[in-house]
Amino acid sequence: ATLDDVKARGKLNCGVTTGLVGFAAPDANGNWEGFDVAVCRAVAAAVLGDPNAVEFVPTTGKTRFTALASGEIDMLARNTTWTFSRDTDLKFDFVGINYYDGQGFIVPKALGVTSAKDLDGATVCIQTGTTTELNLADYFRANNISYEPVPIETNAEGQQQYLAGACDAYTTDASGLAATRATFETPSDHVILPEIISKEPLGPLVRHGDNDWGDIVMWTLNALIAAEEYGVTSANVEELSAAAGDNPEVNRLLGTEDNLGAMIGLDATWAKDAIAAGGNYGEIFEKNIGESTPIGLARGLNAQWTEGGLLYAPPFR
Amino acid sequence: MSDTHAESVAFVRETAIPPALPPATVSGPVKWMRDNLFPTWANGLLTVAALYIIYLILSSSLPWLLGGIWNAESLAQCREILQGNSAACFAVLSERWNQLLFGFKYPPELYWRPTLAFVLLFIAAAPVLFFDLPRKLLIFTGIYPFLAYWLIWGGTILTPLIALLGVVVGYLVFNRFVKGSFAAGMFGGVAAALVVWILGGMVFSGADLFSLRSVSSRDLGGFMLNMMLGITCVSLSVPIGIALALGRQSDLPIVKYICVVFIEFIRGVPLITLLFVASVMLSYFFPPERTVDLFLRVVIMITMFSSAYIAEVIRGGLAALPKGQYEAADSLGLDYPQAMRLIILPQALKISIPGIVNIAVGLFKDTTLVSVITLFDIVGMIRGPILASTDWNGVYWELFMFASVLFFIVCYSISQYSQWLERRLATDHR
Amino acid sequence: MTEAVEMKVSDEIAISIQNMNKWYGTFHVLRDIDLTVYRGERIVICGPSGSGKSTLIRCINALEEHQKGRIEVDGTMLSSDIKNIDKIRREVGMVFQHFNLFPHLTILENCTLAPIWVRKIPKKTAEETAMHFLKKVKIPEQADKYPGQLSGGQQQRVAIARSLCMRPRIMLFDEPTSALDPEMIKEVLDTMIELAEEGMTMLCVTHEMGFARQVANRVIFMDEGQIVEQNEPEEFFKNPKSPRTKLFLSQILGH
Amino acid sequence: MTEAVEMKVSDEIAISIQNMNKWYGTFHVLRDIDLTVYRGERIVICGPSGSGKSTLIRCINALEEHQKGRIEVDGTMLSSDIKNIDKIRREVGMVFQHFNLFPHLTILENCTLAPIWVRKIPKKTAEETAMHFLKKVKIPEQADKYPGQLSGGQQQRVAIARSLCMRPRIMLFDEPTSALDPEMIKEVLDTMIELAEEGMTMLCVTHEMGFARQVANRVIFMDEGQIVEQNEPEEFFKNPKSPRTKLFLSQILGH
Amino acid sequence: MTTLSDPTQESFRLSMLLNDTRYRSITFQAIALILLVAAIWYLMSNLFANLEEQGLNISYSFLGSTAGYDINQTLIPYSSQSTNLRAAFVGVLNTLLVAVLACVMATIFGVIAGVLRLSNNWLVRKLMAVYVEIFRNIPVLIWILIIYFIMTAAMPAPSAFRGDEPAASMILGSFAFTNRGVYIPSPVLEPGWMIVVATFVASIIGIVAYRRYSTKLLYDTGRLLPRFWPSVAIFFIPTLLVFFLMGRPISLDYPALAGFNFRGGLQIGAPLIALWFALSIYTGAFIAENVRAGIQAVSRGQSEAAAALGLRPGRIMNLVVLPQALRVIIPPLISQYLNITKNSSLAILVGYADITATLGGITLNQTGRAIECVLLLMLFYLTISLIISLILNVYNSAVRLRER
Ligand SMILES: Nc1ncnc2c1ncn2[C@@H]1O[C@H](COP(=O)(O)OP(=O)(O)OP(=O)(O)O)[C@@H](O)[C@H]1O
Ligand SMILES: Nc1ncnc2c1ncn2[C@@H]1O[C@H](COP(=O)(O)OP(=O)(O)OP(=O)(O)O)[C@@H](O)[C@H]1O
Ligand SMILES: NC(=O)CC[C@H](N)C(=O)O
Ligand SMILES: [Mg+2]
Ligand SMILES: [Mg+2]
Known about the structure:
The complex is a heteropentamer, with 1 copy of chain A, 1 copy of chain B, 2 copies of chain C and 1 copy of chain E.
Chain A: H1 2-9, E1 12-17, E2 25-26, E3 32-33, H2 35-48, E4 54-59, H3 64-69, E5 75-76, H4 84-88, E6 92-94, E7 99-101, E8 103-108, E9 122-127, H5 131-142, E10 147-152, H6 155-164, E11 169-173, H7 174-182, E12 190-192, E13 200-202, E14 205-207, H8 211-230, H9 237-242, H10 248-254, H11 260-263, H12 270-278, H13 281-288
Parallel strand pairs in A: 1-4, 1-5, 9-10, 9-11
Antiparallel strand pairs in A: 2-3, 6-14, 7-13, 8-11, 8-12
Chain B: E1 11-12, H1 29-36, H2 41-66, H3 75-82, H4 91-102, H5 112-129, H6 138-153, H7 158-178, H8 182-204, H9 222-249, H10 253-268, H11 271-281, H12 294-320, H13 323-331, H14 336-366, H15 378-388, H16 397-428
Chain C: E1 13-24, E2 27-38, E3 42-46, H1 53-60, E4 68-73, E5 76-77, H2 82-91, E6 92-95, H3 107-117, H4 123-136, H5 152-165, E7 170-174, H6 182-197, E8 201-205, H7 209-215, E9 218-223, E10 226-231, H8 233-238, H9 243-254
Parallel strand pairs in C: 3-8, 3-9, 6-7, 7-8
Antiparallel strand pairs in C: 1-2, 1-4, 4-5, 9-10
The structure holds adenosine-5'-triphosphate (ATP) (2 copies), glutamine and magnesium ion (MG) (2 copies).
Residues 61, 79-81, 127, 130-132, 172-173, 176, 200, 202 of chain A line the site of glutamine.
């Protein structure tokens, strides 16, 4: 079973993107950082008690599924869209959604384009092997306009092609566009078009068939979300977990009451470790892609359900 | 005898004519210029055209190269310094130097280890490449792989030590029995080595002697990864290549066809599909509970790839040997393994070295393909982390030029070596 | 030319070939060869190119397989049994037209290789034997050189010494002098004559008729895969019986 | 050996070489060569290896450039003028040690190539001429084979025929028999003797002393780039004057 | 009798398996076979166990389902509604297209560089040596990337052609070099175009016929007609004449800037150009070496013999050296062609939709059918390489020098 493998290895192999600032990218010292990376670290913390016990395996849109299917990685947290065929035909299990997204376009301001429908005849850069590639084909066909795709392997290359003017527009998940734009020299010269042409629920996934492992990843993610809902932060998690408090849900979450951890084969402090690793969902969001960062994404759909968003962690009980 | 011409007959020279220096028209720079640059009218035009091309290349690249900026923190800063002038921003090299060479995850404080391994490589390779050096040095060559493994991956020294011990014991046993019969030597050697490995594994499991901090192979990267892949795969594929070549030459049809099919199959598909197999399919062929390290899988595939090519080179070497050598060995009563080991292979391999070196160069260049399956070799580093970073987005020339220069230095020197060797063998053999 | 070598032929049979036939594919190279060689005999085989001379002597030490008939060398029958083949090859030394020395080994190593690996003789002893025979062929001082550094004649003498180091009881020579420059032929022939004087059983394919006259006690003429004529050298050269032999001799002695 | 060929030497000068010198880089290969060849002469050049024999005859048809002195062939002075070189090469045929037949052409094509393209002779006529000379060298039946299918001796005879097809007035031979097996040497020598009998002017580098005795009317001995001695064959072989010649002859006639 | 039928019919002993040449080989082969079968069985059983464990199966039905993605360069009609099989087919054609183009170009580069490397002009010789060494010693992957980056970063975008004072302009008003590719005029055929084309074809045949005739004339009468200028004349004059007489039935469609891109004309996409150019210039360096080696392999004796017969240098080259050199050059040349085909699989680096990028890339990824796709991919390349080596063998046996 995967859990045993991970424990025996002492490291979690986690698939991430080859480099998308804010989601997963190595910094100048080679440390991986980002929104997806934080999920990996949380799982590693929950399972092994050490948020740094992760081997990050960079994958492209093309290699990610084979890496997961062949067992090279234990889980994939690479802004991957939950789709029917990936879940069923490719035999993966999506364990949740960590970012509700949709596909958008970015174009240079100088082009004077204000709507995706104006892109008739344009050259569009697109990452191969992604849902966005398929959506793009559908969208242009449905609107009966023509385009020319320039398939590229990684976001980095897409960005280069786009900046060099080899394509008029670049399309991918809106979050990815924002992250990419943030790295531009003059981000204000580029606009993200208003159209969102698809639903892109992004979430971590594991191989089908090992439900125990799937549960661990699923509930680690839920723990992060729930922690935000209940106000458990990296700052107060130590204090809250020192002794049982007055919120029984928090107590159960942090292992001071009942022993949920044992039910999934982990320590009682699993959720505490996960939260301590990088903070709760809100903290992770703010730190990596939130409005205070150059990427500047608003919470929008990704706010807690209590705040009008879609994040809704099932009860810990 | 009739009318022979008296004046031409009975000529005898009494003294030797001393050799004289050739007249000036035969040598000298003017003559050289005339012969080599302007022998004919059309040729002169060609010279002028060539000069113009050289001028074009130099005039466009030299200012760019010489005006390069070496100190800056990002491309933006570079541009600031340049103030609109066009010149190289080599600062990316100084800033990412270590990443380019070692990848972005090899612990910086351990850089000395691969560096040391690299330096030792020269000592280890020397006796293989230059026959004149004392044969004793080969001992170090034998030790080197184990040492390099220890230095690069770290961990306890016991692992490579036991592996080395096994090989040594195996070799001794082989040597002891090979005179009796090759099969006995071979099996004895392998068995002895296995025994040592198993025993060693049992006795020392968990022991922790001279432990270096261990580094996982995922963390290898940069040019170091190219070098490692190149060297490992070539050295592994030589013995396999020999076996395949002998198999293909053999008159046992089944053995022969197995080898032919293998060789032709491997040579028929691009390396990149084999690498896809390594990254996508190979783990399906291993027992479910064991996942093999991607590095190892890549090594397996590249080794298979190069061994097929090396087999063809060695087959050429075998074919180049006169049939008489086989017959002489036979007529002296040597059996097949003896004839091969003592007579045929030493000669065939020597002939094949230039070819093998060429394959090695090709292979070394092909190690860059691993970037396609997301290993971070030097090209992978450039295409991925470095170009994707905010600081250096847009610096292509400098980076690719750097990589090109590295490859050029290595490949060019190897191919010069191989040409030198070819010349030497040509005179050596007569 | 010096006197013909004194003959020491015994009654013991060294090689006996009976009704031997060989084909290359469908090409019938050797036809019904019958030949008995007694110990101490010195036989010269001649004949036009392609007549199967080389093939015949190569069959004797199993470098080529024959398809019909029997060959017995020194009492051992040549069969597909490796043991027998090995045994025969140890008894029979062979010297090739193109010497076939091992260019990657020194002269001494060339001479000791087979004794060490086949006869399992200690290296020391093997080297002593080798030096002995190198002295005999008059080039002991070249022992540490490589074949490439010697002249053709010297190389051929080394090849002879190399064969002798295995202490064979029979020597086969396949045109040992025909790849040599005229100046060097003599050196090699001298060595062979010396060998003959010591009573070695020899089969020699050669067109050096002087050598045949002086050394051989039987000359065999082959054509189209058959032994056409055999006789004592005197008789053979003076009164060739078959017209083909006559033609051949006229050509070869002609110019 | 048959009688020495009857000589028909005229007074007309075929080749005149005066004070010719040649260097390879700074290496002085030919020194002060003076040589006059009369029409119908048959000259054999001998000398140790590296003495410049090949270089000398290659200078005559401008395969090598000489740097000093003058060479006149058939009244045409050899200069760097392409016209002159062409003219001389048409007059002078050359036969090489290694035949240098064109392996991708049949024997007939080998023989007709130059007449057609250089002499602009219609193909029909060229083929007739070629067959004529092939008959002369006794291999008309091989006309449609490829060089690789012939024996060395045959190839060399084709090479002679090929030269003859250009109807040269002078023939140069550079060791034409030294790459041949003994049996084939005779064929080629016979062809050359026949040619000599017809009065062809010939310069021949060879070590076949029998040929020299029988055919040549002058033998030239070269050493270290100089002509050391020249004489009638009788005299040359009987009474070599210079000690170097003596040494050389003793070696070559030795065995 | 010995080998085949021994009179003393010795009975079979076990030791004969090792000692008798007849049985020994059978023994070894049996061992080899057993090892092979065992290895295959081991791998296969692992494969099926793994597949089963993950609930996967091997099926090729995905080939018939909708591909769903678009391809920018197709030689046959294709849309995102086509099947994966058709996408694969588009890839096959694209692979062949770039391979053929690169083979032609590489041959041109290689022959020029190889011949110039033997030039007696020192400077040119050195320059070519530099070209060969630089391109041979740097990985083709880097060349592809560099050339692609030159294309995209150094060439103007189509937008640069826009505006009143455009930063870039079309060459001769009809060729546009942009970072998305090169746009050139494409021919538009009007009635009567067939005649022009037919004339052109006829004049090419005419050139060949003329050259044949001049050779024949030489052979028959010994008269050598000039060849070069008449050939040039035949090449141009009739076609031009007919073209104008017919009232210019072939016109050109010029590319023009419309919207985001150029429209009209013929577009050769940047990925294609980059790949094409990189493969040609890289392989050209290798071919140059083959050409040089081939010419040098013809022994000096050959040209000397020809010179001694009075042939001029040009003729020596045409009649003696080249026919022989080609035999040496063509086999390695053909294997360089195979290398080009194999190296074209690096197309994914520049987003060129070859078979590796479609079947082995996007389809593989969208459907997750890794094993099937990779197998098909290998099959394709194997077929190509078998065909090429077949051609090689046919060629080799056709030109083999006849020997005794
Ligand atoms: N391996 C082979 N396959 C087919 N035919 C062969 C083979 N070896 C030799 N032959 C043919 O067998 C015949 C006899 O060859 P062999 O070498 O014995 O002749 P030989 O008398 O030694 O001639 P030579 O004097 O030229 O050495 C020749 O016609 C030759 O062409
Ligand atoms: N192209 C060359 N460059 C430099 N030296 C040369 C060249 N060709 C020949 N030589 C040298 O010139 C000398 C004379 O050579 P040449 O071939 O004329 O000798 P030779 O008398 O014909 O000898 P052989 O009998 O071996 O053919 C030799 O020392 C040779 O090494
Ligand atoms: N841009 C990406 O790499 C991911 C695209 C998209 N979310 C997918 O899963 O296919
Ligand atoms: Mg023979
Ligand atoms: Mg010479």
